[in-house]
Design brief:
The complex is a heterotrimer. In chain A, 65% of the residues lie in helices and 5% in strands. Chain A is mainly alpha-helical. Chain A folds into three domains: 3-62; 65-203, no CATH class; 218-437, MetI-like fold (Orthogonal Bundle), CATH 1.10.3720.10. The radius of gyration of chain A is 33 Å and the shape is flat. The relative contact order of chain A is 0.10. The model of chain A is unreliable at 1-6 (pLDDT under 50). Chain B is an all-alpha fold. Chain B folds into three domains: 4-158, no CATH class; 201-232, no CATH class; 239-469, MetI-like fold. The longest helix of chain B is centred in the N-terminal third of the chain and has 42 residues, at 45-86. The relative contact order of chain B is 0.08. By secondary structure, chain C is α/β, with parallel strands linked by helices. Helices cover 36% and strands 26% of the residues of chain C. Chain C has helices at residues 51-58, 88-94, 109-120, 126-139, 143-146, 159-172, 189-202, 215-221, 239-244, 249-255; strands at 10-22, 25-36, 40-44, 68-76, 79-80, 95-98, 177-181, 207-211, 224-229, 232-238. Chain C is globular. Classes of the chains: A mainly alpha, B mainly alpha, C alpha/beta. Chains in contact: A-B, A-C, B-C. The interface between A and B is large, with 92 and 90 residues.
């Protein structure tokens, strides 16, 4: 140990060099830290965008979950509505002026309102469809109430907005949708507890309507559901067959390459181009009905096809080759090995890819607009060829309207749409986790 | 009229029954034959059933499909001819109206008092009924022929499984070809209509003209303007302002998405722990999962008014349909395209390069900026091109938040229009299908398709070059 | 570890009781070794015995691996390399590394060599930088082959040339110790011999630690050899002695090919 000597220290030149490096190091480390900070800032900015987006929508939409109603006392003229056996006569009911009944009953409660002008202003407080709603309500029960009855009817959308605090009293009367006089009347009703906010069932049970308070997303949701049903029906089998062909049966060569290039390219084509295709070929050439969920579903199927093909191919590839080899070794044909052995194992992955593809298709708007699903449809579609609209298109239509009430309903419709999407994506992730086996 | 889903449920069930029946029949038959001859059948018995089933169903299905698409037009053409004979003096536009009426009367939606129309409707109904009968008969005939042909061939020597699988393979091949057919369909339909457009408007006028106003294709002050004059009025279909608008919005979108996306990607791939990365990356991808109509809603009803108010506050005149609002929100949507793809590309840079840089005494920042990013550059370019392609093809955000009038400006505070907005505006609303206006939408469509195709191909080749560097 | 009394060279680096853990697994066990100044020390041993891991301790490259934990001290001069207070950037400016597979940056030849001086701010002017690059390439024995094509992409060079480029790149920073992790394992025999010659030249200026799979190579280039087995330093001494008269029977078994 004694003749061990530690190496001489660095010579002067080297010492100087290292000092220089040490000095410069502070700046370099600071620059490195700055880069990291920029990264964090960028991520936080992006996330805050998301938060702002969701907050704006939720804060505007949650009020649509409620609808303002007011109490009116009226009595039904039996003679005009009742059949000989005492039950409600539907034919009479159809011809009866329900609207007038409601309006008259409402106006009569305000004794001081005399002039026609004032009366008209007063009736603007109640929904234009109040009479129709009352009729449907009575017809459902089939019995006509006797004597003075208290009924709750919807208010107009302006009053509804006022009750939810969305109309500013302080701005000039000219610029408001409700005059001071009307606001006073509403205040009166409120002070007598004749106004209430109830759960907006109509939103979930009705289709589109001219009046916001009578409109709902059921029509659009059913339209979307029908279209997506067609999409899955067409896209899933075609995609799985195409994927199996490309993975197992396609001979290497130019034809196969061409097909693969096409599949990959289609995945990146703008959605509006698919809409143009649907318009020109399905509507124009084949003469299929406009606005039909059938056509919408077909267009969406073409859009979703590449996504599911790619997902299926990935799932098939993830199946260990030993499975296929074992099947082939036991004498199965290539087709049997593919269908009986590989596909069942790849199935969860295929399902996950399909759910994700359908979720994407649910949010598509532009192609459906092109094939006409953007009309004003007041009925819930009953068959695949009835004119319909879709949920994202309904949002688009409503966002165009001037009424504030449609703005809040669009927001709520967006929340409904996002709920569907979130649940679909979560189920896809759960499915993947549940069936993911580590081979 | 489309008479598909309202057709007889009976026929459908009968077909199913026939198929199932022939399956079991053939299956049983081969087993009996095998027992009789004392040999084993080549394939499992169900393949014989499947074989016959295919012969029964497939020709019938093909026939039904052809009938579906061919019969109605033929019937309607015949009805139209009869109508022309009945109303010889009727101008073309009224003829279409009469045809629509006829359809409604025949279907029972409309009541008419015109005896001629009623008679025509009756004729049409009869024609449809006999066509239906003919179809059902032919279908039954085809199914029977298929059945007898195939059943006769059923024997233990028949290699049923091989035949069935060959058939299946062909079906699978056709399924794969659907993708090609779709592309062909897109190109053909767009080209077809675009060519009709370019017969009226010259290519030069379209691609280089600087005035776009298809809705007002009439020059003010013209009287007695014929259709040719209107169509030929150059400057109405010049798409340069529309392209500039599209590019302006795309550039604004990239200006938002690129820095945010790139720095996010650098952080998630180089600085973040695995746990943080596994949370942040999917969360950013949520931005891509939000439907574009929601972004459009946000852009039109929240972002645009916000920018307008800020502008008022600062003293600038910001349009309520500013390119800034539309482009900005579009940028938010595109962030995940840049961040996810860039993250993947950066992660794919081989570890030895990093080791080499660290070994020489680089700080983390230096390694990233001087070594990793340059190495990942082709892939990053690819990601950007894909993002631009997405921005150019995006529809709902701009339809809801950007303007409709073509405006040749690069000022982000003004309203501009884009290719996709014009396509939607031209084809929704009450335009005749054949007018030059609606055809111009297809010309725009094929231009859009070509541009996004080029961008996608460029993106792919850029990323390919990344892989080649490390060979 | 014992050395015969003789030419007592100075000790450049002294490692004391170094333990390395990957998570729960222990890769190195109480390794202590004194590295001689201006000599080539070879680390040999079968695959997975920890020699590369040990090598990477010298320039704290194990810091890059999150699950890795290094205990013990590695003293150079009056500084413990393994102390967390020591800045790895400064350390790596003194201790350079050449890797198993040549890893030139996808840049020009010039830029590859200039990288180190640039980031550390060693050159005041362009001409100074040019001189440093030329000097390093000459020391690495590559200047003659690339002098006229410094602007070409480094990836266009042959394997052997790339490795010499990596050596030039490491030298350009001005270290006094060079770590080489199996530098010739990806090269053909001719390129290998060129590099081995280079190592003999470099040894006059630098302290070189080389990990090698090839005993013949260790015998050719090194003055001292350390034999590692399953994370333990089994034997360390003059190369000639280790290969002809190993003191430990494990060493003997490896050298005669019984294990490996």
């Amino acid at each position: 140990m004694s003749d061990l000597k530690y190496a001489a220290q660095l010579d002067a030149e080297t010492e100087l060099r290292f000092q220089k490096i040490a000095i410069g190091l502070k700046k370099r480390r600071a620059a490195s830290r700055r880069l990291k900070t920029y990264g964090v800032l960028a991520i936080l900015t992006a996330l805050s965008f998301l938060v702002i987006l969701l907050t704006t929508i939720i804060s505007n939409g949650y009020t649509a979950l409620q609808q303002t109603e007011l109490l009116v006392e009226l009595s039904f003229p039996e003679a005009k509505l009742v059949a000989s056996d005492g039950s409600l006569d539907l034919k009479k009911s159809q011809n009866f002026n329900w609207d007038g009944l409601v309006k008259k009953a409402f106006v009569s409660e305000f004794k001081e309102v005399k002039t026609r002008l004032d009366q008209r202003a007063l009736t603007e407080i109640i929904s234009k469809n109040a009479g129709y709603d009352l009729r449907r309500q009575i017809e459902k029960t089939g019995i006509l109430p006797v004597g003075k009855t208290k009924v709750w009817i919807k208010t107009s959308d302006d009053v509804d907005m006022f009750m939810k605090g969305r109309i500013d009293r302080t701005i000039e009367e000219r610029k408001r949708r409700l005059s001071d006089q009307q606001l006073d009347w509403v205040d009166d009703l409120v002070s007598f507890n004749r106004v209430r906010l109830v759960f907006n069932k109509t939103f979930f049970t009705a289709a589109d309507s001219r009046e916001p308070e009578s409109s709902g997303v059921l029509g659009a949701t059913v339209g979307s559901a029908m279209a997506l049903f067609v999409t899955v029906l067409l896209a899933l089998p075609l995609a799985v067959m195409a994927a199996v062909y490309l993975e197992y049966f396609a001979p290497p060569g130019r034809v196969t390459d061409f097909i693969e290039v096409n599949v990959n390219n289609l995945a990146a084509v703008p959605s509006i181009v698919f809409g143009l295709l649907g318009l020109a070929v399905f509507l124009g050439f084949f003469g299929m009905p406009r606005s039909a969920p059938l056509v919408g579903g077909m267009v969406l199927a073409l859009m979703t096809l590449p996504t599911i093909i790619i997902a299926t191919r990935a799932s098939i590839r993830a199946v260990p080759t030993s499975i296929r080899d074992a099947a082939l070794g036991l004498g199965a044909s290539r087709m049997q090995a593919a269908i009986d052995h590989v596909l069942p194992i790849a199935a969860p992955g295929i399902l996950t890819g399909t759910i994700i593809g359908i979720a994407q298709a649910l949010g598509e708007t532009a192609p459906l607009i092109m094939i006409g699903m953007v009309a004003f449809i007041v009925d819930v579609p009953a068959t695949l060829t009835d004119p319909a609209t879709a949920l994202p298109v309904q949002i688009y239509i409503w966002s165009d309207s001037a009424e504030r009430a449609f703005y809040e309903r669009s927001s709520l419709a967006i929340m409904v749409l996002l709920t569907f999407l979130i649940s679909m994506n979560i189920s896809a992730v759960l499915l993947r986790r549940k069936f993911e086996k580590k081979w | 009229m489309f008479s598909f889903f309202s057709t007889d449920f009976v026929i459908f069930s009968a077909t199913i029954l026939a198929a199932v029946g022939s399956f079991y029949l053939a299956k049983g038959r081969v087993l009996k034959q095998a027992a009789f001859e004392g040999v084993k059948p080549h394939s499992l018995s169900q393949y014989y059933g499947l074989y016959v089933c295919i012969w029964v169903l497939v020709p019938a299905i093909l026939l039904a499909l052809i009938w579906l698409f061919a019969a109605d037009p033929m019937l309607l053409n015949a009805a139209k001819a009869r109508l022309v004979a009945a109303y010889p003096k009727l101008p073309d536009s009224f003829l279409d109206l009469k045809m629509a009426q006829l359809g409604n009367i025949a279907a029972g939606f409309l009541q008419s008092t015109d005896p001629v129309m009623v008679a025509q409707a009756d004729l049409l109904r009869q024609a449809q009924a006999s066509a239906d009968r003919a179809r059902n008969l032919t279908l039954a005939l085809v199914m029977c022929t298929g059945f007898f042909y195939s059943v006769r061939r059923v024997s233990p020597e028949l290699r049923a499984r091989v035949l069935c699988e060959a058939f299946l393979r062909r079906v699978f091949f056709l399924a794969a070809v659907v993708a090609v057919l779709t592309t062909v369909g897109i190109v053909a339909s767009l080209l077809f209509e675009a060519v009709r457009f370019f017969r009226e408007i010259s290519l030069i006028d379209f691609f280089f003209g600087t005035h776009w106003s298809p809705m007002t294709a009439l020059r003010p002050g013209d009287t007695g303007v014929s259709d040719e004059d209107v169509a030929g009025s150059s400057g109405s279909f010049g798409m340069v302002p529309v392209m500039i608008g599209t590019l302006l919005v795309a550039v604004i979108a990239m200006a938002v998405a690129l820095p945010i996306g790139l720095f996010s990607a650098i952080y998630t791939s180089e600085f973040a722990s695995r746990r943080v990365r596994n949370v942040v990356k999917p969360t950013l991808e949520v931005l891509a999962g939000v439907p574009t109509v929601v972004y459009g809603f946000f852009a039109a009803l929240t972002a645009a008014p916000f920018f307008r108010d800020v502008g008022l506050f600062v003293g600038l005149d910001v349009s309520s349909q500013s390119a800034l609002a539309a482009g900005g929100v579009m940028g938010i949507m595109i962030i995940p395209f840049i961040s996810s793809l860039s993250d993947d590309v950066i992660t794919a840079v081989p570890q030895p390069l990093r080791d080499g840089a660290y070994g020489l005494g680089s700080t983390r920042g230096e390694t990233i900026i001087r070594v990793i990013l340059p190495a990942a550059f082709p892939g990053l370019v690819g990601a950007c091109l894909l993002a631009v392609s997405r921005a150019v093809g995006e529809t709902m955000i701009v339809v809801m938040a950007a303007g409709v009038a073509a405006n040749m400006t690069i000022n982000p505070l003004e309203a501009v229009t884009t290719v996709t907005v014009q396509i939607v505006m031209l084809l929704t609303g009450d335009n005749e299908f054949d007018s030059v206006k609606t055809l111009s939408a297809f010309a725009l469509g094929i231009t859009l398709f070509s541009i996004t195709l080029l961008l996608n191909v460029a993106a792919l080749s850029a990323s390919r070059r990344l892989g080649q560097r490390y060979e | 570890m014992t050395t015969k009394p003789g030419i007592a060279k100075a000790i450049k680096i002294s490692a004391k009781e170094v333990n390395v853990f990957y998570g729960e697994k222990q890769a190195l066990n109480e390794v202590s070794i004194d590295i001689e100044d201006r000599s080539v020390t070879a680390f040999i041993g079968p695959s997975g015995c920890g020699k590369s891991t040990f090598l990477r301790c010298f320039n704290r490259m194990n810091d890059v691996i999150p699950s890795c934990r290094v205990e013990g001290s590695i003293i150079m001069g009056d500084v413990d390399i393994n102390n967390q207070q020591v800045d790895p950037v400064l350390l790596r400016a003194r201790i350079g590394m050449v890797f198993q597979k040549p890893n030139p940056f996808p840049k020009t030849i010039f830029e590859n060599v200039a990288y180190g001086p640039r980031i550390h701010g060693l050159a005041q002017s362009k001409s100074e930088l040019d001189d440093m690059v030329e000097d390093s390439l000459k020391k690495a024995g590559l200047w003659g082959e690339v002098a006229d094509r410094l602007a070409d992409q480094a990836t266009g060079l042959s394997g052997g040339q790339q490795q010499r480029l990596c050596i030039a790149r490491a030298i350009a920073v001005g270290p006094d110790v060079l770590l080489m992790d199996e530098p010739c394992s990806a090269l053909d025999p001719i390129a290998t011999s060129v590099i081995e010659e280079l190592i003999s030249e470099l040894q006059q200026r630098f302290t070189i630690l080389i990990v090698t799979h090839s005993m013949q190579q260790a015998a050719r280039v090194s003055q001292k050899t350390a034999y590692f087995h399953l994370g333990t330093l089994v034997e360390y001494g003059d190369t000639k002695e280790v290969f002809t008269l190993p003191k430990n029977e494990q060493t003997e078994a490896y050298i005669s090919g019984k294990i490996g």
